[in-house]
Specification:
By secondary structure, this protein is α/β, with parallel strands linked by helices. It contains 20 helices and 16 strands.
């Protein structure tokens, strides 16, 4: 019997024979000859192993036509993009694992318009070389009140560039309570060291006073640095020095001041029922020489780090060689311009920008949507236990870490599988749906479910 199986396994068609079969031509045309041959070889090897392991050969599993079919399926699956659109049902608006902010439609349209040639560094009137951020420069000045701006690939890069350009070899005064660590093991002390700046810690973890800045300034002081505590909060017996007071000290001692705002709010979050988050405009108005922040968090654009401030300091930063290393591409600039334009009409953000659309949802509106979705899911899966529960969602993305937003979620349990397994099935649907797990239940939080997502959730329910 074993001898017969070995004989059958050896008799499987060769790669060259399969390439001559009908249908193989289509594979070669679509994926190239080498890729088609590799897929056919993989299928033949798998068929051989299956025959020897099972002790029998399934009818038709090793003939050339079946090999072509399996190879075509393998190529189709491998050609699908690894990055794909997902439905965010976690309740976390700025979800780092899901690309932080969902960009507005205008940004997506802008991306399409600049994928070919575009005037990223050309003045169309004169045909001369223009500044790289020219398309957003006046817009940023108008929105922030800053004299000048430059853009790099993210806010960590912006921090490194500011420290390198303004304080390499010099002391940077920073409060111990602001020596942050954020996701991905980004630590401010490490960035200070890599930049060549000399970190001068002042104050204590919970209390820093204006006199601490005054006393720390010496002949080798290059910069006063304030960092936003983006992902934690110190409460109780605390004192923090505001940017206005640090600016006064900097002016008196003629030392530049940099304010790292992290998320980069351009509008007040109070209108959405959240506590105040320092805005870029407030920092600029307070007199900070340099203000840096992310473009992909509260701005909700493509990933980037924006540096705004006084022209003389921005000029120094742009002339540093590291700026060329960290600068952004035309896609970032195109999408960012379209996103920033929405902030010219802040009263329309809730209607046009996904972040602010989610923040503006009322609990009653979310509960209504949750009950409608629960009914639809129950109809499709009557064997599931489906209900609606009150829950909490979060802004996320290193902004207001303790501030919970009242929300409602569809709660699903089923006897046929665990919550972990059900969540996995949602995540591996044709359009992945990302829920969260609480106890033995899967939760679909409706605050972060966008218009049009419900149909994709229902498809995932059917596939699950």
């Amino acid at each position: 019997m074993k001898k017969n199986l070995n004989k059958i396994a050896r008799s499987l068609p060769s790669v060259d024979v399969v390439l001559q079969r009908p249908g193989a031509e289509d594979m070669v045309r679509q994926y190239g000859r080498q890729s088609a041959a590799n897929a056919i070889r993989t299928v033949i090897d798998l068929a051989r192993k299956e025959i020897l392991k099972a002790g029998s050969i399934e009818a038709g599993s090793g003939d050339a036509a079946e090999v072509v079919r399996r190879a075509a399926q393998l190529l189709s699956e491998s050609s699908r993009p690894k990055l794909k659109r997902v439905v965010n049902a976690t309740g976390i608006i700025l979800h780092t694992g899901l690309g932080r902010a969902a960009m507005p439609d205008v940004a997506r349209d802008a991306l399409e318009s600049v994928t070919g040639y575009c005037n990223v560094q050309m003045d169309l009137e004169t045909s001369k070389r223009s500044r790289r951020e020219q398309n957003v420069l006046e817009l940023v000045r108008e929105l922030t009140g800053a004299e000048d701006a430059c853009i790099v690939n993210n806010n960590a890069g912006a921090t490194m560039l500011v420290l390198k350009a303004l304080a390499e070899g010099k002391e940077v005064v920073v409060s111990r309570g602001e020596l942050i660590e954020i996701g991905g093991s980004f630590r401010l002390p490490d960035i200070m060291e890599q930049s060549g700046a000399i970190m001068h810690e002042i104050g204590t973890t919970n209390k820093t006073h204006p006199r601490d800045y005054d006393n720390a300034i010496g002949k080798n002081t290059g910069l006063l640095f304030k960092a936003h505590k983006s992902n934690y909060k110190v409460v109780g017996f605390t004192t923090e020095v505001g940017i206005s007071d640090i600016v006064k000290i900097g002016k008196k001692k003629r030392i530049p001041v940099a304010d790292d705002l992290g998320a980069g709010a351009l509008v007040g979050l109070e209108q959405f029922g959240l506590p105040h988050e320092s805005t870029v405009q407030e920092s600029v108005k307070a007199g900070a020489d340099v203000v840096l922040f992310s473009t992909d968090k509260l701005i909700g654009g493509p990933q980037g780090g924006m540096i705004v401030g006084k022209e003389k300091y921005i000029t120094r930063i742009r002339k540093h060689p590291l700026y060329r290393v960290l600068r952004v591409c035309k896609l970032t600039l195109g999408a960012l311009e379209a996103t920033l334009k929405l902030f010219k009409s802040p009263e329309l953000l809730a209607a046009k920008h996904p972040i602010y659309m989610m923040l503006a949802k009322s609990p009653a509106e979310i509960e209504k949507s949750a009950r409608e979705l629960a009914d639809l899911i129950s109809h499709k899966k009557p064997e599931w236990n489906v209900s609606v529960i009150k829950t909490t969602s979060y802004l996320g993305g290193g902004s207001l870490p303790e501030e919970a937003l009242l929300s409602f979620a569809v709660k699903i349990t089923t006897k046929s599988c665990s919550a972990d397994e059900l969540a996995r099935r949602f995540r591996t649907a044709s359009t992945p749906v990302i829920p969260r797990i609480a106890g033995n239940a899967v939760l679909l939080d409706l605050r972060t479910v966008l218009p049009g997502d419900v149909s994709e959730i229902l498809k995932a329910v059917e596939q699950a």
